[in-house]
Specification:
The chain is mainly β. It is built from one helix and eight strands.
Length: about 120
């Protein structure tokens, strides 16, 4: 497994809307985002670059504390949309997100055009 390292910073920038696309090359790429404050979430919306051309394989894990993670999705994007696709899970406190990107059916590129947590509220 390869850690996205500095590339994770660009992934975090998608949350702020400060970047238009994040891309990393590889079939076993891990990228983590640590939120400044925990949020009570029940969904994460992901917008895939070239979303109608690729089905990107990935696993999404969440953590209430940034240390212990558990999976909420393991599969692929639809390959049919350039809009946000939503991963839903039971509402819970989330401090960190971890992605394991595995590339797509057309190659090892993993490209996101947007990332936003659901309508979360600050968690106590």
């Amino acid at each position: 497994m390869v850690d996205a390292g500095d590339d994770s910073h660009g992934l975090w920038q998608l949350l702020n809307g400060n970047t238009k696309e994040w891309a990393v090359y590889g079939r076993r790429i891990r990228a983590e985002i640590l939120l400044l404050k925990p949020l009570e979430l029940e969904e994460i919306a992901i917008k895939w670059a070239r979303g109608t051309q690729r089905e990107t394989s990935f696993r999404l894990e969440i953590s209430p504390d940034g240390n212990k993670f558990h999976p909420v999705f393991d599969g692929s994007s639809s390959g049919r949309s350039n809009e946000y696709e939503t991963v839903t899970f039971p509402g819970q406190k989330v401090q960190a997100l971890r992605f394991l990107f595995r590339g797509s059916q057309v190659g090892p590129w993993n490209q996101l055009a947007g990332l936003r947590p659901g309508t979360g509220t600050a968690a106590d």
